[in-house]
Amino acid sequence: MTIDEQLLAQIEALRIPLDDPTLVLSWKDWYHFLLWDKEGKIRILVNITLSGRPRQGEVQVSCLINIASDLLPVEYQVDTPMVTFGTAFSLEWQPDTVCKHPLRLCGNNVLLEINGRHSRINVREARMQLALCFEGVAQATPVLVTEDSPFGSGFIGWGLVPGLQVTGELSVSGFNFGIDHRWFSYHDRNFGCFRWGEDIGWEWFVAFATCDDGRQITLALDQRTNKDHSLKGLPYIFVYIDHQLTKTFIGSSLDINWQWSDGSIRPVRLPGIMASLFSDRAIRVPQALEVGAVDHDSRLLVKVKFETIAELIVPDNQERQYTFIEEVTGTVEVSLFLKGEIFHAKGILYGEYVL
Amino acid sequence: MQSPSLDRDAQLAQWLQHLVEILRAQQGSTWKDLVGTVSGKTAVIDIDGVQLQLHANGGEQLQVEIKYPVVFQSVNLRTEAETLRDVVSGRLTLDSAVSQGKIRLRASFQNLLGVYRIVNGILADSAINPQLRRLWIEFDQSWSTPTSCVPSLCLENQKPGYGELIRHIPKDILEIDVFPVFVREL
After folding, report:
1. What's the farthest any 2 CA atoms get from each other in chain B?
2. Which of A245, A265, A338 is nearest to A306 (CA)?
3. Displacement of CA B118 from its chain's centroid (Å)
4. CA spacing 20 to 30 A to B33: which of A89, A131, A138, A308?
5. Interface of A with B in 142-181 (CB under 8 A)
6. pLDDT of B169-186, one tens digit each?
7. Positive or negative CA dihedral for B1, B5, B8, B12?
8. Is pLDDT above 70 for B4?
């Protein structure tokens, strides 16, 4: 399919104005990738963030991996069907860390390159014995959703490419797993100027599901909120069929219902200082999600059962304040009525509940 | 990087002095906790068998004298760099490290609480103070690491224990009511 390369370049362009010496440290710019295999037995999140400015900023890398227990030797199996591995580390942002055209971010144990439809990502962490490298080619219709939505004390923008063809390899504790074209991969970009820990939050997911006849449905939901989710912005879901943006449900046509655990637990946390600092924090966790959408000619019902949760705690870089990102994955069933046609599909969903 | 010309005890002492200066420049609650906890006191620490004797005085104008080489049988804080790495990487909580004997502490309860506040303060400050992150990286990359490769654990197994200390206190002791007002009257 044809990709609008100009739009893609606009989405992928680094937005932090590097030439401004007075740049405030609240600027951030991040590249978010998700990958999972056809059966959803390996689910990978990689996030590479630039925060602040050169010499006074950081490159922050997060990598979260869920692997089905039955893919691992007995000694790695726990009493849950999915096992979690992960790492989070940061590097000082030196002037030669980032090249804007074409985009290249290179530091100790991390590489990100994006040039047109092609991307390349390498992340390594010896202590956690994790290594991930893959190359992607954009396949799905890119969308630049917003460039300047009010968010906290500033603004946020984001765009997405919810379909890449990928190849690569994952290594966890010496076990290697191939990544090939049958995998699903999603990529989005966020940028803006705001502070973590402000009165901000969001509800977001991407789901990839396959119909019996082989057609593929990708759904991407987003709704910005305040920290306790008592105030919610305009929700919307992009519906892709076979990587083509086909439909958007928006606003009051959407009904989003999260179901939570009765009690609080201490979730798995991505390693790092924040995991140590908040080790006693117990939370109620999402167990299921149902999203319905109806408009004059279409209907959508999404039913999710969550299987994994991991918490990522993001500190502000100027004050002791924090944003908590609950990363959840699970199985999804999609029922879609569109243009007189009915689709039933099953697959995997990756979501975030942020507070 | 660890200076090749410095012995390990000298290097460790230099890093500790640097830590004090970073906290002094930063001021704030961590500096106040440090001054309030350590001023006028002496302690012996032992990391991977490298011992230092520290003496702090001067209140707000805190000065820390560090003596080495020293050899003491009884130290106030004994641990290994690998334990510190586990704590900083979120694989092990501070109290779990203490209850498992990976960090051995000998001090009054008040001083222990003070040390706990200082360590948590430094962890929190590291997100907003790049000098602290640089100092940690210097220590982490320079100080020796074990040559054997430990199999990576999944995060479900790495979930750090919390409340380990209180779980080691017998139930009948925990059930004793303590009324501070009586203490004052005594």
Report:
1. 59
2. A265
3. 8
4. A89
5. 172-173
6. 787 887 887 665 544 444
7. negative
8. no
Edge-to-edge strand ranges of the sheet holding A110-115: A98-99, A103-107, A110-115, A118-125, A130-138, A164-172, A175-179
**Residues in CB range of B172: below 8 A, 6 or more apart:** none
Structure tokens that stand for A185 in this block = 């991969």
The token pair at A26 is: 């609240």
CA distance A30 to chain B (A): 18
Distance in Å, alpha carbon of B68 to nearest chain A alpha carbon: 30
Q: Where are the domains of chain B?
A: 4-142
Nearest to B163 by CA among B80, B96, B109: B96
Chain centroid offset of residue A352 CA: 8
Q: How many CB atoms lie within 10 A of CB B66?
A: 19
Other C-beta atoms closer than 10 Å to the C-beta of B57 total 14
Protein fold of B4-142: Nonspecific Lipid-transfer Protein; Chain A (3.30.1050)
Count other C-beta atoms under 10 Å from residue B109's C-beta.
7
Q: Which residue of A has its CA nearest to B87?
A: A276
B53-71 tens-digit pLDDT: 999 999 999 999 999 999 9
Q: Six-digit token pair at B146?
A: 């074990």
